[in-house]
Amino acid sequence: MSAALILFAHGARDPAWRAPIDALAQRLRAALPQVPVVPAFLELMSPSLAEAVAAAVAGGATRIAVAPVFWAQGGHLKRDVPALLAHVCAEHPEVRIDLWPVLGERDAVLDAIAGDYRELWVAAG
Length: 125
Description:
This protein is 46% helix and 18% strand. The chain is α/β, with parallel strands linked by helices and 125 residues long. The protein is globular. The N and C termini lie far apart (52 Å).
């Protein structure tokens, strides 16, 4: 079974906004060299989620994880993303597509951010 990881973020008009998403994708590619890791965006940037899934499937993926690079479960993740995923899943019924939890629900992420902010606080004196 071939797998792919899609980092799904909001998107923005400013092209520089995507730099942290691309940096995260690059780090994950280094950590998981056997897994294609690609960004996708809800709006204003490409590829879209549907385009990223189609490309992964064309590349042979039969299992795709969608990692929402969002801070919390807002309206997009409660309403828009389930509708997008339902559409994508209907287009690719032979592919297992899993939606991972948002970043702010992960204790490891919250611990890392708290630790980094603590270091900044201490360094600021």
